[in-house]
Amino acid sequence: MDAIKIGFVGFGNMASAMADGWIATGAVAVDGLYACASRYEALCERCAARGMHALPDAASLIGAVDLVVVAIKPHLIEEVLGPLADALAAKPVLSVAAGWDCARYEALLPGSRHLSTVPNTPVAIGEGVIACERLHTLAPAEHELVWELLGALGTVVTVESRLLSVAGTVGGCGPAFIAMVIEALGDAAVKYGIPRADAYRMVSQMIAGTAKLQLATGDHPGAMKDAVCSPGGTTIRGVAALERAGLRSAFIQAIDAIEG
Predict the structure, then answer these.
(1) Is pLDDT of 2 > 90?
(2) Is residue 237 within 8 Å of 244, Cβ to Cβ?
(3) CA distances from residue 136 to 92, 157, 158, 160, 176 in whole angstroms, order as listed
(4) Which domains, ranges and CATH numbers included, belong to the chain?
(5) What is the pTM of this model?
(6) What does pLDDT average to over the chain?
């Protein structure tokens, strides 16, 4: 993988996070990373800070790389990629654009080789979740390479086409929801006298540790909750308060608001 040349069409937050993850994990040599974007001067600054190559347009980028990552806003894909269909037919395409599944790419870029994914921002440290559509048109060797590249960024989950959107919503929007939880629990700790920096550090480590424990054991989250709730104890009183406040319903409603 360290010899591959990867080009980002669009270099916003998600593309930057992916680039940072590949650089941090050493999966891709920084000299092999390229990007193009509409605001070229700002792009040059962001690429220079990482040691990447900034290119002025998508056409020149496609010709310079081995793998094209589509990371522009979904509503711009037809406008930007449509005129480049012939050039893209010669390169594998990895999409990180929400709402663009295999069927839509087949209609826009017939005969091209592509895979649709929805990653989340923790890919920047190799701890992301990447939802991948099961249906794709990559050649076997290309799929193996892309799978290895994505695996360097975190956990890869394959889903049916009809589930790609909700998988991307849970994984991609979830970090914002959990950040709100970190902030809220941090505020509660500060209320009782803990310095804010310590509060955030404690809460973030608590969440990371709990998540790692669930992944390591495979325990049902409800069983993990029960293990902390002694009869008549402090934790069960807090759990009851969260239930009265509608915590579970609020999270489900957040997903409904996006998917609905």
Answers:
(1) no
(2) no
(3) 11, 14, 11, 11, 29
(4) 6-159 (3.40.50.720), 168-259 (1.10.3730.10)
(5) 0.89
(6) 95
